Amino acid sequence: xxxDGIQRRDVLKTLAVVPASALIRLVPLQAAETAHNAVREVxxxxxAAAYAPKFFNPREYTTLQSLCQAIIPSDDRWGxxxxxxxxxxxxxxTSENEEYQRRLGGGIMWLDATCQKRFDKxxxxxxxxxxxxxxxxxxxxxxxxKDPSLATGIGFFSFLRELTADGxxxxxxxxxxxxxxxxxxxxxxxxxPPVPDL
Amino acid sequence: MQVIRSPxxxxxxxxxxxxxxxxxxxxxxxxxxxxxxxxxxxxLNPDKDFKxxxxxxxxxxxxxxxxxxxxxIPYINEFTAPNAFFTIPGEPYTTxxxxxxxxxxxxIVGGRTNHWARIAxxxxxxxxxxxxxxxxxxxxxITYQDLAAYYDKVESYIGVFGSKENIPSAPDGIFLPPPxxxxxxxxxxxxxxxxxxxxxPSRLAIITKEVNxxxxxxxxxxxxxxxxxxxxxxxxxxxxxxxxxxxxxxLIPNAMAREVLVGKDGKAKAVSYVDKTNRQExxxxxxxxxxxxxxxxxxxxxxxxxxTLFPDGLGNSSGVIGRYLTDxxxxxxxxxxxxxxxxxxxxHDGVGGMHMYIPWWKFDRKNDFLRGYHIEFGGGRGMPRFxxxxxxxxxxxxxxxxxxQKCQQSYGAFIGLAGRGxxxxxxxxxxxxxxxxxxxxxxxxxxxxxxxxxxxxxMAKDMQETFRAIVEKAGGTYMxxxxxxxxxxxxxxxxxxILHELGTARxxxxxxxxxxxxxxxxxxxxxxxxxxxxxxxxNPDKNPTLTIMALCWRASEFLLQEAKKGNL
Lengths: 198, 568
Fold this sequence. Notes:
The complex is a heterodimer. Chain A is an all-alpha fold. Chain A has helices at residues 3-16, 29-47, 58-71, 86-96, 98-119, 128-138, 143-146, 151-169, 172-178. In chain A, helix 1 crosses helix 2, helix 4 packs across helix 8 and helix 5 (98-119) crosses helix 8. By secondary structure, chain B is of the alpha/beta class. Helix content of chain B is 23%, strand content 18%. Chain B has eleven helices and 18 strands. Chain B has helices at 19-30, 46-49, 130-134, 144-158, 183-195, 235-245, 295-304, 390-396, 401-410, 454-473, 545-565, and strands spanning 4-15, 35-38, 84-85, 94-95, 105-106, 200-201, 249-252, 255-262, 268-275, 280-291, 329-336, 356-357, 373-379, 414-421, 430-438, 444-449, 477-478, 528-530. In chain B, the strands form five sheets. In chain B, strands 1, 2, 7, 8, 9, 10 and 18 form a seven-stranded mixed sheet that branches. In chain B, strands 13-14-11-17 form a four-stranded antiparallel sheet, with helices on one face. Chain B starts with a strand and ends with a helix. The relative contact order of chain B is 0.19. Chains A and B meet through helix 2, helix 4, helix 8 and helix 9 of A and helix 5, helix 6, helix 8 and helix 9 of B.
């Protein structure tokens, strides 16, 4: 029997001695950790199923995925927004929020209409250099001063950038990329490590 | 409609299960009394209800809530211990013209103590003598010395870490060892030393050693989510278990108190309440009553308890109930510290709160404003959360690997500072019953009026100047844009948002200008006590929970003695 199994049994034992009617129970440290790991596994398993978009239609969702990955791409070591599940997170929130539906749904339609006008095709059908051309226009607020017709696209992209960052940096990949090393159980808190000139 | 009345007459009925209700329950049951407790929310099951150690990616909304609702609400999110809400469906509150007020209510066993910041500061001697010291507000009917022994009892029992500092504005208590400083705290402490600003280990109700079988903190920094191991203080996990263990306590959850009923002899005899699970009207009878529903909710209950004997509400012959409402003065800002970019990844979590803080340090000089404030601060390499990279996204803009790297570089390099100062009660700030609006149980709701005075604005200005000075002295850049005009100059907080609403049934020696005596007993009705933040006379720059518990412990011991003497 592995140590995990022993811990699990300890949890059950702990829970068994507490009457079901008890309002509060104090779970020993080790038992609490095991219980949480068990919850984690169950939750991770259910999240693994394929995602069916709740708000965006297939074409819009493909555009959303493409934009998210452009905002936070993968690099040689770390996955990007797509691998991190940012589009799912954004679609879920959008399906529940009418303002998001207007801003993101409308934004994607603006993007496609603008690409149609410029390149005679929708955003996802554009070549990488055409996509870069349009993104370079809507990724900076200052561009609206030169061309006010970009304001809608810039507002859309700015909102999407923040949501994409949230989707990425709240993901397993994003958290590892940042080097966050907490959410553990320590007996002692070691304090600030020695850093010169701090 | 048939009202169901409890056949039993309890010794004491407690309304509320938070810091006040929990403390009363422990002291009274251990003293031998039979207690019934009404809680407006459900029971709490830490295993199921606390999200300690859950990662953001384990929740579909990543903590931001359905429709991203928590992007727009301060403090609370999907991880917060239940049930803290600024908005409760079916249970509104209103505000007067030109007033804005945000009222956080926590309907669950343990109340707000499940998620509070655990900041446990004693009031200082001068905090009880407002009028005597500068002519504003009023004095308490009790002194620091009256409460000192009860601070000792509370701290010894719940466990508070801290350090002996001998600072007149921040009295020492009975402390467990404080945790070591984080990198962010080391930086701010050094800057404060150079500016002659005090910066000392904070005082939080989190245990760093075992206390009464509760294991010490395991440093996951998630206290606000609720603690599975009860290594921080909550009423639900620390006060109520010993009360329940006596066998003398009956807890009635989902019980929304409507009114305290008074007998012909002028004493309270029962509380009528709604069983929220089936909308059944019920009454529970007792010989004495402890109201601890939170300052404004307690005021609401008393104001709604109208009778021929007490036409303006129970215990309100003075007319002060609902008056003298205050919240802490809040203002905040943040800085960027390039030296933190170079700190290697490490576990920066620590306890769920600050390891160091800045107590009021200008108590020895004349300032532009009366009273004082303390500064809380934090930042660094905490668990990433939604909204955290908005600032970087807005400043850096663009997209691609450059943006990704910029987020990584700036992660952990921010420190936020927040001031918490004393508001002096004013005539324009109070709560009252709104005659036109009732909640879904037919209970009239509160209407709030709130106004910051000049003294508070000056204090917020001083906070902003201090934040900037500290950040710049520490080698950082102060990032916050500060407006000096408008509804909230110097980023002064919206009323209620600091969650320290107090004073709505204040104590005092004169029954014409106060609702309670120094033992939290109403002047008008001997067997009714109000033991939560409503009893406070001043709202000094110390978070009130520790003092609520000390006052309530003292009041409960008094109640026990009076009960034994047959005086209730």
